Amino acid sequence: MKLAVFDFDSTLMDGETINLLAKAYGSEQEVSEITKEAMAGKLDFYHSLRKRVKTLKGMPLKQVCEVCENLTYNPGAKEIIGILKDRGYKVVVFSGGFDEGVSAGQKVLGYDIHFSNTLHHKDGLLTGKVGGEMMFSYSKGRMLEKIQILLGVDCSNTLVVGDGANDLSMFQYAQKKVAFCAKEVLREAANIIIDTKDLSLIKNYL
Questions:
Q1: How far is CA 151 from the centre of its chain?
Q2: Does the UniProt entry include the keyword Metal-binding (predicted)?
Q3: What is the CATH number of domain 2-15+72-204?
């Protein structure tokens, strides 16, 4: 058995779910400012995620689902997942984003399982709080290690694909480390770099 792990936002999906939700709800400017703080190193992933989700307080859950049902996926996403599954890979998605988005993506792209975060809601409205399995910068690496132990898959049979600093923690557990249209911090840790927006190019490295 082999294992392929993908990030979701800006890797399988074209864009960031939190930005699309903020745009739909009218908190886009606030989220943009928080993102800038995080990019400047003033906020870690955990605190930036909590601050951004807080701007969505009061957003109808129905509206969240509508946004997530209409996500745009990067070229080659469905193709490469199909190729990997045909070659005996289990395909997993780790996302610092939200269940609503990655669940919708699973229906379209066909990956095997996903791990992400949950937007808390009450009476059909978001509370502005978030929790889940992917809340910290180290979460993806920790989860990948557990899955490898469970499935009996080692580093040499693991492929990971991501675009940002939040994906760094899982790179240490994989032999094939793909930086896809990635930020410099991840490119430096990768041994496969793809700058063309076409995920199907990964097949050249299998």
A1: 21
A2: yes
A3: 3.40.50.1000
